[in-house]
Amino acid sequence: MVTVRQEERGLGRNFHYLLSAYSIQTLGEGVVIAALPLLASKLTDDPRLISWVPLATELPWLLLALVGGVIVDRYDRRLLMIGAQTIQTLLLVTVALVVTLGGTQIWMIYILAFGLCAGDIVFMGSSRALIPTVVRGADLETANGRNVTAETLGRMFLGPALGSALFVLFVPLPLWTNAVTYVVSIVLISRIRNAAGHFRVTPVPGATEERRGVVAEMMEGVRWLARHRVLRIVVLLAATSNFSVFMAQSITVLFARDVLGVGDAGYGILVAAMAIGGVVGGLVSRRVVAHFGTRSVVIGVSVASALSLVAIGLFGRQPVVVVALFGVWSAGLSVWNVMAQSLSQRLVPNRLMGRVGSATRMIAFGALPLGALAGGLVAAAYGLTAPWVIGGIVHLTVALLTLPALLRWPSVIEAPQES
Question: Where in the cell is it found (predicted)?
Answer without folding.
Answer: Cell membrane
